[in-house]
Amino acid sequence: MTTQPLPGPGSSRRLRLLLALPKFGIVLLVIALIALLWLLQRNEVEEERTALIKDVLWLEQNLRFHLNGSEDHLQQLAVDLVQQPEPSRTFRLRAAHMLKNTPEISQILWLDATQRVIDALPSSTLPDQEIEAFGLAYSRQAFDLAKQFGKQTYSEPFFADGKRAFVELMTPIFEGRQLKGMLAAVFPLDTLLSSQVPWWFTQKYKVVIIDDNDIQYATKTSVEGNSAQSYEIPFDPPGRGLKLRVTSYQSGENMLPRILSTAIILLAGGVFWSLWLVRDLMRKRTRAEEALRGEHAFRTAMEDSLTVGMRARDLDGKVIYVNPAFCRMTGFDSDELVGTTPPMPYWIPEQIDETFAMHQAVLAGMAPPDGFEMTFQRKSGEHFHALVYEAKLIDGNGKHTGWMASVLDITERKHAEELARQQQAQLQFTSRLVTMGEMASTLAHEINQPLAAIASYNAGCLNLLARPGCATDDIKPALEKIGAQAQRAGKIIRRVHDFVRKSEPKRAPCSLKDVVDDCLGFIEADARKHRIRIETHIPDLPPILADRLMLEQVLLNLMRNGMEAMSGNEEADRLLSVRVEQGAHELSVCVVDQGCGIAPENRDKLFTAFFTTKQDGMGIGLSICRSIVEFHRGRLWADNNTNSYTGRGTIFTFTLPLETS
Ligand code: ADP
Fold first, then answer.
1. Which CATH number is 306-409 given?
2. What separation in angstroms does the CA of 566 have from each of 16, 168, 230, 531?
3. Is the CB–ligand 1 distance for residue 334 below 6 Å?
4. pTM (two decimals)
5. Of 238, 437, 459, 610, which cross-links 154 as Cys (Cβ 3.0–4.6 Å)?
């Protein structure tokens, strides 16, 4: 597992700068786009206005052209009415012709000089009295003006029926200098617009005829919607304050730039918003990076200061990580170890099979949970003992991805333990020698007894043999006794020999009763010498798994201590008892004396090596006894003997587990 260096704080600053650049660019782009759109819009408005003015001028010219044509025809008719022989017929013919060709004129009236209607076409639609009624005021005014100036004059616009607006054109009829009559042409203004404003014009514009007071007289359009701009031009004549107002309308095409600009602004907003989100994201990332950096530094510091070797392997057994402590332990670099598969470079070639078997057991999840010991080798070839604990490597998603081992170099500890074990064994041996030395004299005395008995039996036999007629049956009992005494002496010697012989601890099934008997055999002579009674209470016991010699050593030591503690007692109070009791899972052996007891201040130091209160004592007996008992997975402790005759004394108790194997 290689650890990538994390980006430093400088890189996040650079990242922020890089992130600010597109923001700046987008702001500039949006400003440029808005300016461009504004310019385009302005150009378009100006172009529209120019087109509008052009169209309005054209319309005004067109209308004027048509009105001028009508004026000319009426003027000609006025001349002809005076000159032609049949004026009534001429009026009818020409007026009918004009009405047909000039749709904007709805009626032509022929008035006399007093303003009375001579004739009218069409006469059916407008009876005389009506003409007089609706047009009277305006007609008279126009009539008077035409008469006064002697030229064609338009009336002011007026509404008839409250709905339609009209103007009248008065054309005076002169004969010489005398006014003979007047031709009045009625122009409905809406008809003027509907007949003279082309369709395409109304697709783009609304045309309205208004006066100075903004009163609408006629209108024409086929578009609806919002007006963009309008233009007014005087419509005079027919004049008298009339104006043409043309209003342009926004077409669907005109919406395109607006939609475009809205889209651009929305897009820019979207980009800003996304940049804002990215910025937020980057901030979070930077914070996470900083936290990660701290975490990484902490992890590295932790890894470097660990004294326990750590090694991670994937599910196939390939090494994916080792910490510095493991590298120091093995002497290999991380690069030399990461990626390696079995056999690992730190495996001992001679032990490859066992190591590989353990490796397989770990991969199969069968590694002992309390750890296991292995021997590895350093790069230098030096062997070392390791205590290995294997655990599952679980990733952040809870997935089992491999195995993590913590490895402890226990070489030093092992050496120390071995040394301590050797010292302990040496001590035990020494202790046995000491015990034996102390007992040597009594044993010599003990052996003397069978030897003396053998000698006397032997003398007896010789005497018997010297007698004539000695029967072999007389000698046989004596010889048997000699043999028994020799066996007894041999047994004593063998016991001493066994006891002194140094051997490795070896647990085997043995009877505790035999052990106690053997001890009694050893100690009886000494007890007799010091006049100490020994009583035993041993029920029938199952065999136990123990090193017989070691147990004898414990019992002898406790019994000898008990006897020594009672050396100051009255003879009657010198009683040592050995009691064995069987519990559910263990046997307990009590050695009870009536001796001096243990002073409270010495109680804690009792089992410490070299603690003694005796002048010639070594102080190692009890400490050895405890380690022997613990070697047998038992316990050893001391209590005050509260039930003794003397009111003093000690009970040493040790337990031994009842095991079958
Ligand atoms: P040593 O007998 O050489 O002194 P031990 O380790 O056997 O060494 O005993 C240590 C000390 O424990 C003795 O010196 C004695 O003070 C005390 N002790 C041991 N057994 C008894 C006992 N039965 N009664 C009183 N004191 C005892």
1. 3.30.450.20
2. 93, 165, 140, 10
3. no
4. 0.41
5. 238
